[in-house]
Each structure stands twice: as C-alpha cells, then as structure tokens.
Specification:
The structure holds two protein chains of two kinds. Chain A is mostly beta strands. In chain A, 0% of the residues lie in helices and 56% in strands. In chain B, the strands form two sheets. In chain B, strands 2-10-9-4-5-6 form a six-stranded mixed sheet, with no helix packed on it. A four-stranded antiparallel sheet of chain B has the order 1-3-8-7, with no helix packed on it. Classes of the chains: A mainly beta, B mainly beta.
C-alpha cells in the first residue's frame, strides 16, 4: 500500500522560498505511469492544483504559480519536492502531495489522485 | 484554464436523503472529471474518477454521471459519515482545476 508523507518547515518568512518534500513508501516512485503532484488549500478555501512531475522529470505547473514553482524528483530517495519562491502571506496553506494515477479507456488516459499525504500546514509570516 | 463551478456551495440534508451535487466546466472536458470527499482536517479522498467510475472501496451509494460540461455526484441514501465537503476536479488539461467545493451538512 503506497503512502505519502509531506515534510518541511511549518513557518517561512515573506520573500523566502518554501521547500517541501514528499516521501513515498510502500512502492517505488519510478514504477508505473504515475505523476507525482502538489496541491494546496488555504484555510476555509478550495483546493488549488500546483503542479506535477513524471518520473522522467517532465513537469506541468499551474500558470498562476509557474514563475515561482519548481517540482523535482529524487528517485534514489523515493521522494519528490516542491519549491515555491518569493512567498507572501497569500501562500499560507495546507500543502498536500498526491499520486496521479491513470486509467486507460479507449486509449485515452484519465488521471485521478488516488493516494494523498496527510498534508502539512505552512504559514508565511515574519 | 478551465473553470469548474459547483452548485450548491452548501447543502443541508438528513440521514437517508438522496443528494445530488452539480459540477459545471467552462468548456467540454469529455469525461475527465473526478470527485473527492474531504472531512475537516483530513486529506481529500477519491470517490469517483472518469466521471462515473467508482473508486475501489467506496460505497455503492455514491455515483457519478455526466459528460461534456455538466456532471453530477449523487449519494443515494445519506449516511452519518457522508457529511463532508465534496469537490470536483477536471483532468482534461493542466492545470487540473478543482471546483470550489460543496459542504454537505446535517439538517
């Protein structure tokens, strides 16, 4: 049973870079046609898709964050990471990592997030 | 970006009720639509993928339908553990946007 666990500082100062890591256990991050994703949720608000990475290193980012976001993967550690630069108070949120799995119907790949980490709260404040 | 709009934003219902939540996409997403359930302080849980496929382990009282721009999540007979927030998400194109969520409360 694959499990994900986020880790990183819970407090980041404005203008600094937020760095989080997601550790994958119970399976190899390199196995299968999975994307590895980051999602965030400000308090009392909806979910925001940040971006994802394939084990080949190919990435997709939310255009609203693209200039500030970097997602990377370390297959030797079975981890993937998020860096969000130049943070402000508006970046305060619970951050989740998740696995995006595909199902193939008529040669179309339908992706969905079937495994999630528990989430980690990150506050941006001086 | 594709905008996802859910209705209603909140809903009060009783145990045993049949409930329907609607999700509308700003353009056709064919059947690239997922539904998640989230309880306070917890991560989202996948219920439905590809518009109508039930995730393994999810009770059969949950069902999804729709294609193109209009989708529904139906709970056939509400159980106490179903009171939560439900969100739709499109996976047709990145960014894989979510709806704003529908909070289902006990009447």
């Amino acid at each position: 049973q694959v499990q994900l666990q986020e880790s990183g500082p819970g407090l980041v100062k404005p203008s600094q870079t937020l760095s989080l890591t997601c550790t994958v256990s119970g399976g190899s991050i390199s196995t299968g046609s999975y994307y590895w994703s980051w999602i965030r949720q400000p308090a009392g608000k909806g979910l925001e898709w940040i971006g994802r990475i394939y084990t080949s290193g190919s990435t997709n980012y939310n255009p609203s964050l693209k200039s500030r976001v970097t997602i990377s993967v370390d297959t030797s550690k079975n981890q993937f990471s998020l860096k969000l630069s130049s943070v402000t108070a508006a970046d305060t949120a619970v951050f989740y990592c998740a696995r995006e799995a595909p199902v193939v119907y008529a040669r179309h790949y339908y992706y969905y997030m079937d495994v999630w980490g528990k989430g980690t709260m990150v506050t941006v404040s001086s | 970006d594709i905008q996802m709009t859910q209705s209603p934003s909140s809903l009060s219902a009783s145990v045993g009720d049949r409930v329907t939540i609607t999700c509308r996409a700003s353009q056709s997403i064919i059947s690239y639509l997922n539904w998640y359930q989230q309880k306070p302080g917890k991560a989202p849980k996948l219920l439905i993928y590809a518009a109508s496929s039930l995730q393994s382990g999810v009770p059969s009282r949950f069902s999804g339908s729709g294609s193109g721009t209009d989708f529904t999540l139906t709970i056939s007979s509400l159980q106490p553990e179903d009171f939560a927030t439900y969100s739709c998400q499109q996976s047709y194109s990145t960014p894989h946007t979510f709806g704003q969520g529908t909070k289902l409360e006990i009447k």
